[in-house]
Design a protein that fits this description.
The protein has 123 residues and is an all-beta fold. The protein is built from no helices and eleven strands.
Length: 123
Amino acid sequence: HVQLVESGGGSVQTGGSLRLSCAASGYTQTRNCMGWFRQIPDKEREGVAGIESDGSTSYADSVKGRFTVSQDSAKNILYLQMNSLKPEDTAMYYCAAGRLSGKDWRLPHEYRYRGQGTQVTVS
């Protein structure tokens, strides 16, 4: 049974930083294609960042240069370091896993698993 648990969200002022974590359990693979998404009410889920099995990363244009995705394979934890936060970054943030290599990291349906989310509020 695969479980993803996000943590690290909270309220922060504009310009501040947060680091989100996503603890994964139930995997047999130590490296995995994973991603971070965010969603605000009445909007579609938006891909924020993706990481491939070789460690390469991709970002939405809106967060490039401010967010960094990384993975601790030994601990099975996915991180999202968020700097220079803006009010428009306010959303529920989800991690996702189980994407096949080569699939579009921005598409939620390409992932088999998703966490419950952690709220980020920037004011």
